[in-house]
Amino acid sequence: MTELDPSVLIGKIPEPFRSDILSLTQTIRNAGGECYVVGGSVRDLVLNVRPEEFDLTTSLLPERILSLFKRTVPTGLKHGTVTVLFHDRAYEITTFRKDADYVDGRRPESVEFGVSLSEDLKRRDFTMNALALDLERKLLIDEHDGIKDIQNQIIRTIGDPIGRFTEDGLRPIRALRFVSSLGFSLDPHTAEAIHACRNITAKVSRERVHDELNKALKSKDPFPSLRLFKEFQILELFTSVALYPNENEPAADRMKEIPTFPLSLRLTFLHAWLFGSFAVGTHSKQFLKDLRYSNHNTKDSLFFAGILYEILAWKEKKEITDAEIRKILLHPTCVHATRENLLIVLEHILKLCLVYEPSLRSVLNSSRILALAKESPALLVTELAVRGEDILKHRPQLPPKEIGGILSSLLTYVLENPLENRKEILLQRIPA
């Protein structure tokens, strides 16, 4: 038990969730069972953070939970979990359990029901996640000094860390992610065990690593977690690509200044940190493929990285011309983004550039660039005043296979001379 007032924590649960959970608890208690809010949601309440979801644990068997409530989904009966739909809100209710031996470094071979709450809390990963809250009886259960560790901002396993990490190789990655998402530090013994259990961590699926890396990237400041990913050589376990060829800490350190949405923005800075620069190559796509990133995120983040690599060369210039802006920035952005969301994507690019290289502010005038984007009559071949059929009519002797090259040449001319995008002018520029 702990001295922290359970009523205070219960009062932090927003409606309608508090009333829902109280009703669920009362139904289960009336059926002779125990029911607690458990895990990360209780930790978040202690931290005065609104939980994203509320998980419950009970002494009743899953079959009894299925019979108690009208709308249920047997989400994980093997592991004792039933999802109860209550007023169209979903609550996972899991039976107290004890895990049998872990044979694959990820999942228990089997689970044993009919155990106590204490036994159930012992199987959990970290002390901060082993808290249980009974809303009806206003009880807070803390048998592993989780409150103390939360107050001290320490990530510590329950019991022997090597034993806990040997059971489940995802736990070390979660520990590293919590460093950024919670702003906590690793307990020294927990940190040592992460080193010792890398062979177990290597068994985790890349999809789960992808999820944890994303949660770190979406943290207020991802750098503390990223630095530990590097220190413990975690990402190297899941990709064939060589990482960290050059020190580029600014990319990770300044990531906190980049919006968390769309994810591709922070992935762009992750790329620069992992590979030393924004230069895009086969390594770039391979890493994102290895870590199971979608085609959409891959395309966007590599586009941003490539165009930043080009623009960063401008920091050596005292000024840039409108033609350079149209050719190096506006044209490729329009190819990638289309006219409809060109301005949105440009604002993303400008944000990335100025966060990474503030000195570019002297030449990278946002108002000027956005105005050019609005005013430029042609940034794409399809926006030229001439079409392929116009060229063939004007020069019928031209082989059709040369039309594409001529249009590209005319676009280059128009990017430099936007007022010249007129049919009669462009036709005269076609070689005889």
UniProtKB/TrEMBL annotation:
<keyword id="KW-0479">Metal-binding</keyword>
<comment type="similarity">
    <text>Belongs to the tRNA nucleotidyltransferase/poly(A) polymerase family.</text>
</comment>
<dbReference type="GO" id="GO:0000049">
    <property type="term" value="F:tRNA binding"/>
</dbReference>
<keyword id="KW-0547">Nucleotide-binding</keyword>
<dbReference type="InterPro" id="IPR002646">
    <property type="entry name" value="PolA_pol_head_dom"/>
</dbReference>
<keyword id="KW-0694">RNA-binding</keyword>
<protein>
    <submittedName>
        <fullName>[cytidine(C)-cytidine(C)-adenosine (A)]-adding enzyme</fullName>
    </submittedName>
</protein>
<keyword id="KW-0548">Nucleotidyltransferase</keyword>
<dbReference type="GO" id="GO:0046872">
    <property type="term" value="F:metal ion binding"/>
</dbReference>
<dbReference type="InterPro" id="IPR043519">
    <property type="entry name" value="NT_sf"/>
</dbReference>
<keyword id="KW-0460">Magnesium</keyword>
<feature type="domain" description="Poly A polymerase head">
    <location>
        <begin position="35"/>
        <end position="156"/>
    </location>
</feature>
<dbReference type="Pfam" id="PF12627">
    <property type="entry name" value="PolyA_pol_RNAbd"/>
</dbReference>
<keyword id="KW-0808">Transferase</keyword>
<dbReference type="Pfam" id="PF01743">
    <property type="entry name" value="PolyA_pol"/>
</dbReference>
<dbReference type="GO" id="GO:0016779">
    <property type="term" value="F:nucleotidyltransferase activity"/>
</dbReference>
<feature type="domain" description="tRNA nucleotidyltransferase/poly(A) polymerase RNA and SrmB- binding">
    <location>
        <begin position="183"/>
        <end position="237"/>
    </location>
</feature>
<dbReference type="GO" id="GO:0000166">
    <property type="term" value="F:nucleotide binding"/>
</dbReference>
<dbReference type="GO" id="GO:0008033">
    <property type="term" value="P:tRNA processing"/>
</dbReference>
<dbReference type="InterPro" id="IPR050264">
    <property type="entry name" value="Bact_CCA-adding_enz_type3_sf"/>
</dbReference>
<keyword id="KW-0819">tRNA processing</keyword>
<dbReference type="InterPro" id="IPR032828">
    <property type="entry name" value="PolyA_RNA-bd"/>
</dbReference>
